[in-house]
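In the previous chapter we treated chains in isolation. Here, by contrast, the input contains two separate entities that must be folded as one system, with a combined length of 400 residues.
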Amino acid sequence: MTAALLPERQVKDAHRHSKSAQMKKYGFFPGCVAKESCKELFNSTMLLANKLGIELIELTAASCCGASVINDTNRDIARVLNARTYAQAEALGLDDVITICSTCTGHMRAANKELLESEVHMTQANSILGKFGAKYNGGVMVRHLLWLLIDDIGLDNLKSMVVRPLNGLKVAPFYGCHIIRPEAVNGWESARNPHSLEDIIEAIGGEAIDYAGKTRCCGFHIQLEKDGTAASMVGQNMRIAKDKGAEAVLTPCPLCHLALDGYQQDAAARWGRTDLPTFHLPQLVAYALGIPADKLGLNKHLIDPRRIMTERELIA
Amino acid sequence: MNERGPRHALTVNKTVKETGMLDETKLIVGTIGRFNIVGLLKVAPLGLRMGSKGKIGPADLFLKPIPKVDEVRQIFDALEVPTK
């Protein structure tokens, strides 16, 4: 086994402090959607990183993580695509790759687990990477920005950096699937009863709303195949959140954001109007830390969050 | 091929092999079917809403390949299973 991490530490490594964390210099894989239909997520992440005093080094030559689809249709290709990304991080001296998409987190961690647990998989990957002079030595961990905020920055420290608290804005956390399930791949917190988003919401001055839909699927992956079902999944989750008093939603996944932001209108006929704006995690944290609201791309959302922010006197 | 599921899978693989990234616009057209006018008209309102908000723009219609995309293509060529 050439890997630097033993297989059984894959799950424990979710909380391990990396060398990158000590240097405050991380590899950064934004994913596809944050560079296309959710550019506001990418931009607000970079602004937040600057505010936090950390450096995110974008792996510009990294490819798509597989987006669930390649992972299902040809697992070998997905695994090697991600091994290529990790090799790029290692070549830059980085042992920690941060993502801002839950789908990327889940699939990249799954690929890494397979590479670390199987000499066959690692050898296969490196035999192909070797054709263009790359090699993955097994020394990279993949984490979501949410985990960095809690493990590396710390909730108390984050709270002390807040200059614009949310004035008790009632925010429903929406975890979705890939950042919590399966626990054997992610293992950073309980998949059945996570609370990290609630902790962040409370730390930045909001009120976290507990509701049954917070760990359900948003339906994004079936939007094009079963659009009625996908819209209904959004509608049901948002109805539950709204009935519990939610004024907005916070999600760590741009795919969940696209589903929740885009499909509430279609779901209204069956589930009633909900109109809950869906914040990207970096947007809301960056706002609380003092980044001007007009820099966060809030105007890009289909359900405009500025309305509730104005009502709550968070923006003029 | 008439089923959206397999078309979706093939389109994702195709766009990632071509550009290194998932091309959202091509994904929608490829999954629904470029001659499926009714299907495309059904998603058009959401697309127009996203366009009006600036969530998608002209630049998103022509995605540039990532640097060293040939490496991605080599991975696909090495591991792809031929489809009929």
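The two ends of chain B are 11 Å apart (CA to CA). Chain B has a mean pLDDT of 91. Compare these points with the single-chain example from earlier in the chapter.
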